[in-house]
Design goal:
Elements: E1 6-13, E2 16-25, H1 30-42, E3 47-58, H2 60-75, E4 80-83, H3 87-95, E5 103-105, H4 108-119
Parallel strand pairs: 2-3, 3-4, 4-5
Antiparallel strand pairs: 1-2
Length: 121
């Protein structure tokens, strides 16, 4: 059986670093997530957005990796917004209380609008 891999690419929109996640978020995803976070951090964004629209599967190890990413972002005083989560994973993020540490919105436009509203406060 082939290992499920995650591709994490970084881009910026309006001062927000967006990490596009494509594949499975599991134990094999750690290096891709860490590398993407470090790349995004070098851009000194006002916020970080995680795009889950192409994430196929997230297991408990993947949740733990996301918690680690949130901890890094919190230490760096960088807000995190998640978008593109299925209803199933939105519910899991709420049950595990990940939603207490990041804003969850339906799509990229909402994520960018949310960061713009934060900046205006």
């Amino acid at each position: 059986m082939a290992e499920a891999r995650l591709e994490a690419t970084v881009r910026t929109e309006h001062g927000v670093a967006i990490i596009d996640l494509d594949g499975d978020i599991n134990s094999f995803a750690e290096s891709a997530l860490v590398a993407a976070y470090l790349e995004a951090s070098e851009l000194h964004p006002g916020a970080l957005a995680l795009n889950f629209s192409q994430a196929d599967y997230i297991n408990s190890t993947g949740i733990a990796l996301i918690v680690g990413l949130l901890a890094r972002a919190r230490k760096d005083k960088r807000p995190v917004i998640a978008f593109g989560l299925s209803d199933h994973y939105t519910e899991i993020f709420e049950i595990t209380r990940l939603s207490d540490f990041m804003q969850i919105v339906p799509d990229e436009a909402s994520a960018l609008q949310g960061t713009a509203q934060e900046k205006s406060k």
